[in-house]
Amino acid sequence: MTLELGRAEELIHGFERQRVLVVGDLMLDRYIYGRVRRISPEAPVPIVEATAEKGVPGGACNVAWNIRSLGARAGVTGIVGADREAEELKSLLDGVGVFTDGVMQMPDIRTTVKIRVMADRQQVVRLDWETPFAPSDRNMAKLCDLARSETMKSTGVIIEDYGKGVVRQPVVDAVANAANEAGIPVGYDPKEDHELSVQGITMATPNRKEAYIAAGKPEPSRLCSPLKDESLLEVGHILIRKWGVEFLAITLGPQGMLVFLDGEKPHHIPTRAKEVFDVSGAGDTVIAVSLLALTSGAAPVEAVELANHAAGIVVGKVGTAVCSREELTRSFS
Questions:
Q1: What one-character-per-residue DSSP string does 89-122 give?
Q2: Looking at residue 253, which CATH number applies to its domain?
Q3: What are the pLDDT digits (tens) for 33-64?
Q4: Is pTM, for the whole model, over 0.85?
Q5: Residues labelled catalytic
Q6: Burial code of 237-248, b = ≥16 C-beta within 10 A, e = fewer?
């Protein structure tokens, strides 16, 4: 299947009628930009002369930002600390129009912050401030109630797992049950070392590594054509059964995506990327656009084709980035 401009425009136009909730690990991404002219006399490391700094929504917040940039309404549910980084993150989300009614603050954790130092469009180093946590039974019940109530206000929901502590079985169950009651699709972006029961979700978008780990299979080092890769095809069929999803889209970097639907032959969608400057957030874009397209009436392969176009756009940008509705439309012309 090849999605044509007219159909793509029809689906993209439908985005503005949607409200998608993202449940998961909320983060602040901070970028420090500069240039390198010399090596430090103190150690064999480059000296970055800083020239600018900015913060952007990261983690599950980046998924919501992607959805908002495409013209839909978006909200987030998750946990942050009671710190200035949390206030900055909420301010950034408010600034791009993402609803934060489902955000819960816990004073005994710190908000996750990823700091990337960039020099001449290259990442020099990344620093992570984070506190892995396990919410108390009371806080988990409160979080589940928030997730349930926010899901009921939405036309679709995404579970975005970065392994920081929010996406736990009670939360998954609360979202899946509420979405089933409301009759709306659920997308799942997994973490490779986090085993969950996700029966009842609509779609999942693991990358190649995550797919092999979830299927309990060793990942071969040699790549071949996705439709001729027997181990990859086996992994896809295992996950369709294991997760009980309607369809599965495995992201393969430069090889594009491989889509599995129960009872059908897999579909290979080649990458659309012309230039790759930064893959940060590309997976966030894939799940955001795929789920948003489903809520607008796309068939599974149509949804993944739209997502593939969007991912090809964001990897051509430096840093955590989003794709606009206009950019996505132009990519089909």
A1: HHHHHHHTTEEEEEEEEETTS--EEEEEEEETTE
A2: 3.40.1190.20
A3: 999 999 999 999 999 999 999 999 999 999 99
A4: yes
A5: 284
A6: ebbbebbebbbb
